[in-house]
Amino acid sequence: MSISMMNSFFPSYANQVFEINPEKVGVILSLYSLFGALISVFTAWLCSWKGKVPILAIGLVLVATGTFGFGFGETTLFFSVMRSIQGIGHSMGTVAGVSLILSNMFNSEAALGLLQLTGGVASVFGSLIGGALFKRFGFKLTFFVLTAFPLVGLCVLILVISCYGKSWAIFDQIKKKDDHTTFPRSMFSTTLCLGCLAAFGAVFILGFLGPTAEPHLKRSISWSSLGIGLIQTVPGGFFILTAVLVDKLSAKIGRKSVICLGCFLLGIALAATGPPPFFIPLIHHVSVSLTIIFASLLIFGVAAALVVVPLIPFVQSTVQGKPEDTSNALASIFQMSLASGGFFGPFLAGFILVNLPQVSEMTCDSAFVKDLGCQSGYPYASLIIGGIMVMISVLLWTFLPNPAKRDDYATLEHSDNEEPGLIVGQDLPSQALNPQYASQKI
User: Fold this and answer.
1) Nearest Cα to 341, choosing from 308, 376, 306, 293?
2) Which domains does the chain have, with CATH numbers?
3) How far apart are CA 239 and CA 304, in angstroms?
4) What is the SS3 assignment for the chain?
5) Distance (Å, whole) CA 19 – CA 25
6) Residue 156: which residues within 8 A CB-CB, separation 6 or more?
7) Could you tell me which residue, 134 or 203, shows the higher pLDDT?
8) Which of 99, 172, 166 shows the shortest CA–CA distance to 327?
9) From CA 70, how far away is CA 80, in angstroms rounded?
10) CA–CA dist 231, 218 (Å, integer)
11) What percent of the chain has pLDDT over 90?
12) pLDDT 10s digits, 281-311
């Protein structure tokens, strides 16, 4: 929440008050993803060395530090340092949090869906709340308020551990260090590489849309900034709704089918937002443009959830070794893929648009977009990137394994005279919800 809030006002404010040009603002914002990607691999080692919970707490502290310091910035260098600290903290917190879910939650896909749901809520309402706070309190005080969000998360973490750490065995486990190898060789496979490719592609598209969606929508439907901001909440809203249902859909048709369908729809939706240059002459009314864009953004939000939510559980279910042996590494590698896509998407967006053929946007009103002009390379860019994502979906369908349907990662193996224990992914007996039972069995 504290990260998405600043995106609604910082770019224009930095340019007007601190005279930081848009190119430098783009660099400042992209450092968040760059340093998040760089620190991801080291975070897996830190989680194995010091434990997941301490690293999660450190990540929250760093996010709070970077957000608070941002309010005192006046130069490009200072903003860059604070933004980098935010990225490092977010990456550490994400890796540690996802690793906790993978190694301890009995239904990791549902838990990851809930995690993505809260992230979607933050992305949908973050920009709107951030803009309102900035208008009401100004620049510095707004960042002081934003600092409260990671600090509240830290307080909740401390409260949960202090309340349940002694009576609930799962928290006794997650505070311990891991004695296993950080990156076991058995986990590296074609499945892992293709999973990282899908994660990178999905977030690359999101990063590409960041600096390009607003001017494209203004050209296409001639709406004000407020209207554009509202329509941009459509993907986040449908992402939230879909994330809740992904677990049930995966149980019916399998995770592989869900992921491949998501990648395919993601590519189609992006290409349709252009739309492809050969369709533009057929569009003569702004209502048609609005319908196409709304439908594309709706499908985009649904598709993003279909890719992101089941991807990590699917890869973990196919790697060799026990799930708890790979949780740190998987969380780290996927966070690096996501952060890399988030960095290269906006970084390459300008280069892509400038060097592709320029065509007139659909139903563009040149009087409304005087500064932007009606010519843009967006229709070609969205078509090419969307086509690449469709090809990725074909690769995934062809080369990803299709494991037998099962509730989760592992099956229980035990001797006839040995009482079964609990294992990640196994359906729990009803009495397992009792803390005393859990402490005896885990």
Assistant:
1) 308
2) 2-399 (1.20.1250.20)
3) 7
4) CHHHHHCCCHHHHHHHHCCCCHHHHHHHHHHHHHHHHHHHHHHHHHHHHHCHHHHHHHHHHHHHHHHHHHCCCCCHHHHHHHHHHHHHHHHHHHHHHHHHHHHHCCCHHHHHHHHHHHHHHHHHHHHHHHHHHHHHHCHHHHHHHHCHHHHHHHHHHHHHHHHHCCCCHHHHHHCCCCCCCCCCHHHCCHHHHHHHHHHHHHHHHHHHHHHHHHHHHHHHHCCCHHHHHHHCHHHHHHHHHHHHHHHHHHHHHCHHHHHHHHHHHHHHHHHHHCCCHHHHHHCCCHHHHHHHHHHHHHHHHHHHHHHHHHHHHHHHHHCCCCHHHHHHHHHHHHHHHHHHHHHHHHHHHHHHHHHCCCEECCCCCCCCCCCCCCEECHHHHHHHHHHHHHHHHHHHHHHCCCCCCCCCCCCCCCCCCCCCCCCCCCCCCHHHHCHHHHHHHC
5) 10
6) none
7) 203
8) 99
9) 9
10) 11
11) 14
12) 777 677 777 888 889 989 988 998 899 888 8
Q: Is the dihedral of CA 376, 379, 384, 385 positive or negative?
A: positive
Angstrom distance (rounded) from CA 45 to CA 181: 9
Hunting for tokens 């006794």 — which residue is that?
A: 172
Tokens of 350: 């300008």
d(CA 265, CA 299): 7
Compute φ and ψ for 341, nearest 5 degrees.
Answer: -65, -40
Cis peptide before 313 (omega within 30 of 0): no
Place of tokens 């995690």: 115
- Report the pLDDT value the prediction gives residue 117, as an integer from 0 to 100: 63
Q: How far is CA 210 from CA 53, 215, 278, 344, in A?
A: 32, 10, 25, 11
| Rounded Cα gap, residues 224 and 222, in angstroms | 7
* Percentage of the chain lying above the pLDDT 70 cut: 69
Cα 361 to Cα 217: distance, rounded to the nearest angstrom: 9
Round to whole Å and give the CA distance between 36 and 225.
30
For residue 322, the one-letter residue type is K
pLDDT digits (tens, 9 = 90+) for 174-209: 444 444 445 556 566 788 888 889 989 988 888 788
Q: What is the mean pLDDT of residues 66-74?
A: 89
CA 192, chain centre distance (Å) = 18
Residue 4 has pLDDT above 70, yes or no: no
- 173: tokens are 């486990």
Write the pLDDT tens digit of every residue in 225-241: 666 666 767 887 788 88
b/e 302-326 (16+ beta carbons within 10 angstroms → b): bbbbbbbbbbbbbbbbbbeebbbbb
